[in-house]
């Protein structure tokens, strides 16, 4: 059942004249359902957000009482006028925010009321989930520098290569390389087959294993 169909059922199949405005109003009223805390060992879900807005969404969710986190890593070392600029903190998973709540259709609807949130990974009826231990492991490895941009890797990839993701949110999945990287460090754009469709994502070279 899609959100439109679910909402449509509330009106006996008849949609309001200003459907989008009504949808926004309904989603906003569902925010309290999203703020219902799950157990401390419950699985996490993944909000798909506009790239560059991950921290904004995390803050907005947290301010609304929703448990939300964004893994952070050290970015690229830069040089300016012969001076080395130390790597700055940056988002590890571009376009994604981890969140946790007591799952319900209303909670997923409430999530979509937040600015810059575009979807729930896997769909709002059967969202993709990540177990608590895996999330804790990701956060610890991010803190330890395992995902840092400058971390050296022996892997070199060309466009079209098949790789296995060995760490992180999508560990265990097979992906196809879209952008080559022979530098032994940095990031790679790959396409991951998830939920029957190809999804491009940016991953550290250091967490890929060439097949």
UniProtKB/TrEMBL annotation:
UniProt xrefs under CDD domains: KOW_NusG (cd06091), NGN (cd08000)
InterPro entries xrefs: NGN-like_dom, NGN_dom_sf, NusG-like, Rib_uL2_dom2, Ribosomal_uL24_CS, Translation_prot_SH3-like_sf
Domain of life: Bacteria
GO terms assigned for molecular function: structural constituent of ribosome
Gene Ontology BP terms: DNA-templated transcription elongation; transcription antitermination; translation
SMART domains: NGN
Ranges of residues in domain NusG-like N-terminal: 41-142
A cellular component term, taken from the record's GO annotations: ribosome
Pfam annotation, one family: NusG
Entry's transmembrane regions: none
Keywords per UniProt: Transcription, Transcription antitermination, Transcription regulation
PANTHER family: KOW MOTIF FAMILY PROTEIN, EXPRESSED (PTHR30265:SF4), RHO-INTERACTING TRANSCRIPTION TERMINATION FACTOR NUSG (PTHR30265)
Name of the protein described by the UniProt record: Transcriptional antiterminator NusG
């Amino acid at each position: 059942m899609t959100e439109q169909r679910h909402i449509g059922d509330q009106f006996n199949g008849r949609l309001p004249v200003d459907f989008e405005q009504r949808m926004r109003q309904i989603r906003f009223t569902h925010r309290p359902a999203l703020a219902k805390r799950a157990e401390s060992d419950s699985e996490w879900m993944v909000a798909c957000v506009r790239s560059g807005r991950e921290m904004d969404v995390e803050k907005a969710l947290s301010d609304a009482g929703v448990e939300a986190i964004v893994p952070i890593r050290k970015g690229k070392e830069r040089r300016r006028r012969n001076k080395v600029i130390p790597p700055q903190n940056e988002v590890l998973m571009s376009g994604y925010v981890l969140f946790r709540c007591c799952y319900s259709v209303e909670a997923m609807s409430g999530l979509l009321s937040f600015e810059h949130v575009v979807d729930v990974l896997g769909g709002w009826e059967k969202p993709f989930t990540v177990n608590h231990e895996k999330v804790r492991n990701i956060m610890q490895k991010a803190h330890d520098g395992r995902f840092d941009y400058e971390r050296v890797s022996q892997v070199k990839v060309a466009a079209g290569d098949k790789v296995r993701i060995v760490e992180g949110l999508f560990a265990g999945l097979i992906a196809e390389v879209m952008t080559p990287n022979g530098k032994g460090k940095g990031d790679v754009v790959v396409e991951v087959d998830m939920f029957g469709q190809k999804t491009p994502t940016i991953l550290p070279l250091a967490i890929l294993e060439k097949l």
